[in-house]
Amino acid sequence: MIEELDAIQSEALNAVATVTDDAGLEALRIGFLGKKGKLTAASAGMRDVPKEQKKNVGQKLNETRQAITAALETKGAELIAAKDAAQFEGIDPTLPGRTLPKGAQHPLTLVQDEAVQILRRMGFALAEGPEIETEWHCFDALNTPADHPARNESDTFYFENGKLLRTHTSSVQIRTMEKQAPPVRIIAPGSAFRRDEIDATHLSAFHQLEGLYVDTGVTLADLKGTLEFFFRELFGEDTEVRFRPHFFPFTEPSFEVDLKLHATGQAAKWIEIAGCGMVDPAVLQSVSESRKDDAFTADGISGFAFGMGIDRLAMIKYGVPDLRLLIENDVRFLGQFA
After folding, report:
1. Whole-prediction pTM value?
2. Which of 30, 173, 206, 294 sits most deeply, having the most CB atoms within 10 A of its CB?
3. Cα angle 100-103-105, degrees, rounded to a multiple of 5
4. What pLDDT shows up at residue 264?
5. Which strands form 269-279's sheet, in the order they lie side by side?
6. What is the model's pLDDT at position 153?
């Protein structure tokens, strides 16, 4: 049997030496070491070897298996090295490397993250809701009457099932209050959609940041202090903030917030940046009816809400003259923020 093992080893080593690809090498491995391979078949003959020869024959069997295995591994490494060498053929390693372009976050992401961080430091928690909303969450619960222009199909994207793409992230405020009793202090950044003509200051898909604080004894002074602190943290300590009386269906009293913009080479001017106000009691009543309790209509409960466009914040912070630049994915523009 030792002569048989010598013959198998010699045959295997010669075959391995001449093989030229991985498939052929694998076929040899199976042909000699597989379950039905030649060496496996020869090892089955150990049962017929006389007892006094078993030790020598067994040792020879192990040596043969190790020799064939080592030859297969060595040949495999040679084939891999040959492939690597072929891939690098014709490449000059002395040439200087190519500089890869540096990536960066989008300016809208940068502004949103900074705004969220400021408000998180003030105790606001993140909240989210669906972009496809019901009319109740988007309009009815927010005290928006049926004849309000925002509910017209010329202003809002409706689906055949009656649902719509949310026109603001204020709907997240309603969904949060449905699930959580006061105190509620949340911010809701996210996308909103309106049938606006796309121009330098309007987009049909844009980004909003809504805030809501409802608790016992919340006052207009809390709202004013919160927004003044926020805008001065975002734009600088010298930022001038102005509140103008306005009307929103879901807040009373309501205000628009302006910032004084100082553009290089131009006279300073006020620019509208946000809307806000004290949460209208009708909104709190709608939430209580949905919850079937008086968590938001109990004595002393009040709150404020605010909303602003993240796109507008980015325009002011980075001096972007046209809102469309933020959605065109022009790397020449976006590269300025890398």
Report:
1. 0.70
2. 173
3. 180
4. 63
5. 125-126, 184-193, 205-216, 301-309, 269-279, 251-261, 241-248
6. 87
Q: Where are the alpha helices (DSSP H) in the chain?
A: 2-18, 22-33, 38-43, 54-87, 107-121, 135-138, 170-179, 220-235, 281-291, 310-318, 331-334
Instruction: Look up residue 188 and give its DSSP letter.
Output: E
In angstroms, the CA 302 to CA 191 distance is 27
Q: DSSP letter at 287?
A: H
- Could you report the per-residue pLDDT of 268-306, keeping only the tens digit for each? 889 899 999 999 999 999 999 999 999 999 999 999 999
Burial of residue 290, with CB atoms counted within 10 A of its CB: 0-12 exposed, 13-18 middle, 19 or more buried? middle
Structure confidence at residue 37 (pLDDT): 77
Contact 42, 5 (CB under 8 A): yes
3-state secondary structure of 299: coil
Q: Which stretches of the chain drop beneath a pLDDT of 70?
A: 1, 54, 263-265
Neighbours of 293 (CB within 10 A): 12
Task: Give strand pairing partners of 259.
Answer: 241, 271
Q: What is d(CA 30, CA 171) in angstroms, rounded to the nearest whole number?
A: 66
Residue 232: per-residue pLDDT: 95
Q: Under a CB-based contact definition with an 8 Å cutoff, are residues 300 and 182 in contact?
A: no
The answer to whether 230 touches 317, Cβ cutoff 8 Å, is no
Asked if the peptide bond before residue 93 counts as cis, ω within 30 degrees of 0, the response is no
Distances (CA, A) of 52 to 49, 62, 65, 259, 326: 8, 17, 22, 101, 87
User: Residues 16-61: pLDDT tens digits?
Assistant: 888 888 888 888 888 878 887 787 777 777 777 777 776 777 787 7
Q: Is the distance from CB of 48 to CB of 42 less than 8 angstroms?
A: no
- Helix (H) / strand (E) containing 296: none
